[in-house]
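Q: what sequence does this backbone want?
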């Protein structure tokens, strides 16, 4: 099982790979994948980092767990593989983009097109056992992804962090708001969205306005 992260992140995260917790985490993940059906496919676990390289990352969207249904997860939070029906949260994300930017809802829920423009689609936990939400939580992934957020905050400037829902908003303490833009709202899941905590947040136009103001190319959402 080959678990490797893109070279641009390797330099930043090398010290983490040497830590005991990370070695334990990798042993756990390898065992889980050998004994159970897990998602995303092993080669996609670090996919978010492959598509959005360290130097290119200008927006960070935080999720919690990969999708645990067959064929859904592709290593990017909220994203599904081509041809897969949109999960409810993703459907609401596209509805908000439609209202905010007057863009047609796309035919695919594969968000690699965002990631390739510098949107890091980061789940707090990067793997999960099939049909068992949260099954790989508290094994070390959160410690690792917290470090990723902290490194981006410390070493980069003018990054937009989109924190949707209570879980993501707890990460605000890792981010220096004096040099980055933090946008928070309810989660796009129907439970939150239908109670008025998601729709109308205009996060996508706000993110682009901030990027433009800081001389960065806007995201084609």
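A:
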């Amino acid at each position: 099982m080959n678990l490797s992260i893109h070279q641009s992140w390797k330099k930043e995260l090398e010290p983490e790979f040497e830590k005991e917790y990370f070695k334990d985490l990798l042993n756990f993940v390898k065992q889980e994948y050998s004994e159970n059906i897990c998602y995303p496919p092993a080669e996609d676990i670090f996919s978010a980092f492959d598509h959005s390289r360290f130097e290119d990352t200008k927006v960070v969207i935080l999720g919690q767990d990969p999708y645990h249904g067959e064929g859904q997860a592709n290593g990017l939070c909220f994203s599904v593989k081509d041809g897969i029906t949109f999960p409810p949260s993703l459907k609401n994300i596209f509805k908000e983009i439609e209202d905010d930017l007057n863009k047609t809802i796309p035919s695919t829920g594969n968000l690699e097109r965002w990631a390739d423009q510098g949107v890091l689609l980061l789940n707090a936990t990067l793997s999960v056992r099939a049909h068992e939400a949260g099954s790989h939580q508290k094994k070390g992934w959160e410690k690792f992804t917290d470090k990723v957020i902290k490194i981006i905050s410390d070493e980069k400037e003018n990054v937009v962090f989109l924190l949707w829902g209570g879980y993501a908003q707890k990460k605000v303490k890792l981010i220096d708001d004096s040099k980055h833009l933090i946008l928070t709202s309810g989660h796009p899941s129907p439970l939150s969205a239908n109670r008025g905590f998601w729709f109308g947040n205009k996060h996508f136009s706000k993110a682009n306005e901030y990027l433009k103001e800081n001389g960065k190319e806007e995201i084609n959402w």
